[in-house]
Amino acid sequence: MYKRLSIVMFPFLVLALIGASVWGYLEHQEKNTILIKAENQYQRAFHDLSFRMDKLHTELGNTLAVNSTSEASYRKGLVNVWRLTSQAQNDINQLPLTLLPFNKTGDFLANMANFSYRLSVRDMTKQPLNEQEMKTLSALYDHSKAITTSLRGVQDKVMASNLRWMDVESALASQNEPKDNVIIDGFSTVDKAVGAYEELDWGPGNFNALSQADVKMLTGEEMTADAIKQKAAQFLGISDSGNMKVVENGSSTPEYKTYSVVVPGAGHGENDIQMDYTKKGGHLIYFMKPRTVQESKFDLRQARDVANEFLDQHEYKDMSAVSYDQYQHIANIVFAKREKDVTVYPEQVSVRVALDNLEVTGLQASEYIFGHKLRNLGQPKVNAEEARKSVNAKMEVSSQKLAVIENELNEEVLCHEIVGKMNGNLYRVFINADNGTEEKIETIRPDQAAAAAAGATAAPGQKPAATK
């Protein structure tokens, strides 16, 4: 019986074995194909990075070689520097370096791209390169040469020894094996060398310099956890702060430290009140009181009035509503600072108001706190009538006022804000009040058209349908 059964089962077992072998072979082939494809992509990105850094060094040299009065040549060279730097950043993002400290080189390239872009879009006939900017370009030329030389060294070793980037990925992912890979060592050396470069003057429009300057604008003394508890209790109007939990956040740099406050609510943490304060000065930058709102008994205008009064009662004075949204019976209203009838968009506060009882349930004030400073607004050199000539004559202008915005170079500029209708759409146009040039054009969403008509237009960057 067993002999007969084995005779019957043997062909099936053979077929199953053959099928398993074929399946395993196909799986192995598919895996190899994926690995080869990934390796080819890594190799291409690496060699492209080395090529672009070499071209970048050459382009910087060519830019420095032209006469300082050759505005067109400088502009062309700087545009090429910006393009190559941006492409180099993209190449780095395609390499498996997420677990490798390479942030100094990434920051250096980002600063170089920002620096070259700002210079390339500037009118050099009116504002040619100054001595400090020429010095920065010369330093970039020297640094790019050093980076190029280091990358070439790594490239030579990769090609001579047929090194694989897949091994780099495995080495970085390993927690136990020492990371002595040639490629890893080469990139670590590059990043360490970049970190040792002398700090460059990137100019006033640099984003790193701006962010640090904003943080250093904070006023007041450093607060303790107990002092923050008292501020939170006063804000919430409660006398007992014993159940509050305060946690200190941030790095060793005092300017970046914050305190997080949690006030336990009903349920399992879902209704906890959450607040964030800066350690320096104890400024409230975030507040959230989550709760379910079942219906809307009040309208957005009433919510705006309550939010405005709420801001007046705290440290956010002289604010004007510039945008609103409504979602699930909750109004989200954005306010901007008003100075001498000028709307200062960089200082914004967002307030959430429940439409069932007009309770303020949320606040986001980081832009206001870190952007608050003394400004010399000055007088516009271009009057309102001249500014209106810069927009299409067919536009039906509904409002016009002065406003401070941040342009694409992260510079604050005084503008004429013109809101008008054309081709069935509502537009906001910002015209530079100093030279009459167009700084920004935004299309206001249809659901915000009513707000614009009521004098509460969407703030720049607040979900526009289209931006030019």
Automatic annotation (TrEMBL):
Keywords: Membrane, Transmembrane, Transmembrane helix
Residue ranges the record marks as coiled coil: none
InterPro entries documented for this protein: YpeB_N, YpeB_PepSY1-2
Sporulation protein YpeB N-terminal domain segment(s): 30-167
Transmembrane segments: 7-26
Membrane listed as a keyword: yes
The Sporulation protein YpeB PepSY1 and PepSY2 domain, residue ranges: 185-377
NCBIfam families: spore_YpeB
Name of the protein in its database record: Germination protein YpeB
Species of origin: Paenibacillus aestuarii
Gene this chain is encoded by: ypeB
